[in-house]
Design goal:
Helix content: 40-55%
Keywords: DNA-binding, Transcription, Transcription regulation
Distance between the termini: 29 Å
Strand order of the largest sheet: 5-4-3-8-7-6
InterPro entries: GAF-like_dom_sf, HTH_MetabolicPath_Reg, Tscrpt_reg_IclR_C, Tscrpt_reg_IclR_N, WH-like_DNA-bd_sf, WH_DNA-bd_sf
Number of domains: 2
Protein name: IclR family transcriptional regulator
Number of strands: 8
Order of helices and strands: HHHHEEHHEEHEHHHEEEHH
CATH class of the largest domain: Alpha Beta
Radius of gyration: 21 Å
Low-confidence stretches: 1-32
Pfam family, one: HTH_IclR
Structural class: alpha+beta
Strand content: 15-25%
CATH architecture of the largest domain: 2-Layer Sandwich
Number of helices: 12
Shape: globular
Length: 279
């Protein structure tokens, strides 16, 4: 885990404990009127612009948000002042800042599910030789809250995002198979295509979920990313609902060649995590 100390924090200005409210009018209880809340929302929208792009210019952010360049510049400057974004001196473009990394790592370390599952995830990576993901549902997507990469899979996983539509991944399908509300929400939201193999209709989605309930695991063969495949099993709670999924990810040919063994390994790991969580 990256430790951020010294100059990386002091570059933002006077030292401040994480979570401490700033002094002055902006920190007062009456500051967040309607306009202030809109400004907070706009600042969060700016951060979302960097979800898929490493660096962006002021014009890029303004175009994505549909605002004037002066507004985008003002928002970016405010975020830079708090260390949430920073300006690359070489490119003169903006990127996410180190304080955002710090806050993200704090939140990451406090997720009980991740802490409990981590030893089993490491064991699974060692035994399988594949990259391992721990994922949860978020809205109509699936979010990977832990990724343990295998050395041989690093080129495959380079710059791969951690949020995907539920229908496009094995983790998403295996969670939705045991969560009717999630499945219904995904169907209502539609089925955007990530590759030519991605599920495109409610009928296909229902068939895939029925298959998951029969076998206890889900597969993804090039449905999210060309050339990549995965197999996932659910972490079930006491009621039989899914609270998370564990998946193995690797080159499509490799996963398909040894699918039975990979499915068995990931299912055993998911059951161990469920037991440790008290299911």
């Amino acid at each position: 885990m990256i430790a951020i100390t010294g100059p990386a924090l002091s570059a933002r200005g006077p030292a401040r404990t994480v979570g401490e409210r700033p002094e002055g009018p902006e920190g007062s209880d009456g500051a967040l009127k309607d306009g202030g809340l809109r400004s907070v929302g706009a600042a969060l929208d700016v951060l979302e612009c960097f979800a898929l792009e490493e660096q962006l210019g002021v014009s890029d952010v303004a175009r994505r948000l549909g605002v004037a360049k002066s507004t985008a510049h003002r928002l970016l400057s405010a975020l830079c002042a708090r260390g949430l974004t920073e300006k690359d001196p070489a490119t003169r473009q903006y990127r996410l800042g180190l304080h955002l990394v710090e806050l993200g790592q704090i939140a990451h370390s406090r997720v009980e599910l991740r802490r409990t599952a981590f030893p089993m995830l490491e064991e699974l990576r060692e035994v399988s030789g594949c990259t391992v993901h721990l994922s949860i549902a978020d809205g109509v997507d699936v979010l990977q809250i832990e990724r343990l990469e295998s050395i041989r899979a690093i080129p495959l996983m380079a710059r791969v995002r951690r949020r995907w539509p539920v229908h496009a991944t094995s983790s998403g399908k295996v969670i939705a198979a045991f969560d009717p509300r999630l499945a219904a929400a995904r169907k209502a939201a539609g089925f955007p295509a990530c590759t030519e193999r991605t599920i495109r209709s409610a009928e296909e989605f229902d068939r895939a979920l029925a298959q998951v309930r029969r076998t206890g695991f889900a597969t993804n063969l090039g449905e999210a990313k060309d050339g990549a495949a995965s197999v996932a099993a659910p972490v079930l709670d006491r009621s039989g609902g899914s609270r998370a999924a564990i998946s193995l990810v690797g080159p499509a040919a490799e996963i398909a060649r040894d699918l039975g063994r990979q499915a068995q390994l990931v299912t055993i790991a998911a059951r161990k995590v469920a037991q440790c969580l008290g299911a």
